[in-house]
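Notebook, p. 212. Picked up where the previous page left off. The plan for this session was modest: take the two constructs that came back from the sequencing core last week, fold each one, and keep the raw output in the notebook itself so nobody has to go hunting through shared drives later. Recording the first one now, exactly as returned: residue sequence, then the structure token string.
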Amino acid sequence: MNVIAPFLRPFYVMLKPAGSGCNLRCRYCYYAGKGALHAGAGPAAMDDGLLEDFIRQYIEAQPGPDVLFTWHGGEPLLRPLAFYRRAVELQRRYARGRHIDNCLQTNGTLLTDEWCRFLSGEGFLVGISIDGPRSMHDPMRQGTFDSVMRGLELLCRHGVEWNAMATVNSLNAPHPVEFYRFFRSIGCRYLQFTPVVERRRGDASSPLMAGSEEGGTLTPESVSPEAWGEFACGVFDEWVRRDVGEVFVQLFDDTLACWAGEPPGVCSLAAECGQAPALEANGDLYCCDHFVFPAFRLGNIRRQGLAQMAYGERQAAFGRAKRTALTPQCRECRWLFACHGECPRNRFVRDSHGAPGHNYLCRGYARYFGHVAPYMDFMKAELDAGRAPANVMAHLCELRR
């Protein structure tokens, strides 16, 4: 039982065991420069003492019987396999009857048979970062398509459960059908894609800007609101006609959850956020993976304690601000129940009333929600009647006759 309070919601730490270290330098990476925040403030990679401290605190802080560890980066496989063997040992030591799951996000280029045997044996879920076919992936991710596909083949050979994580950027956004069909062709059943939206104050060497701070210049890799909306609609049209219940696309699953009045799985569409802080390799905890900036540093788990920070007022206020800082245009929008103003990191433009803090991608999301509404209405009705949402595919076939 949680020693802070027994009825708290669980939180999920985005753990950075190698900090911002990575063997790649992808063109749109939002994390590559984060190491400068911790220069002289501790090791660039998590040491064994901090690893044990985190695992003990994280398990003790969770209010329920299930605990999920999320290993992220940078590139988490820069830490040796022995580090993760030690992590699993520590999880078992401190579990005290709780069920432990692990997921790990990787660019896939460092996977080997030895890594995959470990990941399979310990039941890790692995997220693979890949942006589509070679023509979409290689220009953005240092020509690594062949290496990533070799890593994916190793995961499949060893029976490791995997999903795909893709960015939607200025290169692949105009090609939603080709993008989606590629993932279907490689046997992907779980697909998540997220829009690239990043800004700088100056040239390409200047740091990225945070959250709702206005101004700056969008990076060349960023997707426009219109392109994001058309992309989401294009992928949806491919999916809804043949793959409902077979391929699980996070955006579509979470949209249906919102339609059904259930909390979405992704924080960007939730009414409030703040349940996914990020832990750097030196023990510093930040409000969110996308807000690793000095103003959003909560403290260090060696001193303040993980539970006190994750459930503290500063983190709670960060989460509430997503709802309380909605612009007038958001509050009067018909899609508020499904969007909730999307992620605060994209709220840096003014709304139709001139109010600051509006979401840059608003027009794209409005296009998407308007397009999928009839299908979501049908699938929600099927759910309400105790039937499968996948019946929408047969319904569409009937309409075409």
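Okay, moving on. Second construct, recorded in the same format:
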Amino acid sequence: MKQIKLLCPSLPNIPWQDKPAGCTAPVWRYQENPIIHRNPVPGVARIFNSAVVPYEGGFIGVFRGEQINGIPYLYLGRSADAIHWTFDPEKIALVDGEGKSFLPPYAYDPRLIEIDGVYYIVWCQDAYGAALGMAKTTDFKTFTRLENPFLPFNRNGVLFPRKVDGKFLLLSRPSDSGHTPFGDIYLSESRDMEYWGHHRHVMGKASEWWENVKIGGGAAPIETSEGWLLIYHGVTGTCNGFVYSIGGAILDRDEPSRVKYRCGNFLLTPEEWYEERGFTSNVCFPCASLQDGDTGRIAIYYGAADTYVALAFTDVETVVNYIIEHDTAGASDHEEGRR
């Protein structure tokens, strides 16, 4: 078993619950799940597929709020312990560079990350087709829209938590105009968060049943001594629809389009009532993580059944070694992703 370290700051108040006795899985659920239930705010029926970060000694997050009219939008939430949340009653007021209101028709599945003191949000929206939207803030009061990074059709935009070789890195999943019965993860880079290029294939769907239809980025990659730990989702099809599970891979630290290890087993799959039953059944959809560089602890936030927010735990040595031990990465994974 390798000694693996998290390469990130300490987070002593990370939410945590020890592994239950007899549990042999590399990731274990919070026993009090779900942490966010239905109808959390007036006018919002469900919050799920949402992202959190440490902020001013506590925690703050951007949440997908499915409004009672069925239109998803972004809401701001705050917490002292990253488990119990309060939400602003109004959706986030996005503005353009001149401070004028600039709201997309809808917005969902946000990711949130801090880079060099600036907090960036990436979400999916309509831009004459499913596309990625981006905004930035330094105070969680003013949220300024940036240019959309790509043309339609694209989803699952996930920024890396730091620049690599002076460049911002973004994972995405090119799609179609529908629910996307296919999908691979790609890597793109930018020096200014406006112009994106040097696109590289990272990895595609696999033969394992739980990810044999499509995959997509989840939480922001976590830097470790072994490489970037990528928590992602894998999808399979059944006679009752798609099933979303959580998987794990390790990307090269210097060339993240190269996959070093890819776990052939899922890390988490729908098994509990709040994952199996809801607006969209059988969904575990990771969007965020918190990690403590001192202890190696990792807390994973995931949407459950498109209805709830749930929490799971692991530690860096447990999950990285599990991925290495169950590695099924193939030749196309190990490639630079350039053809």
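Notes on construct two before I forget. The radius of gyration is 18 Å.
Flagging for discussion at group meeting.
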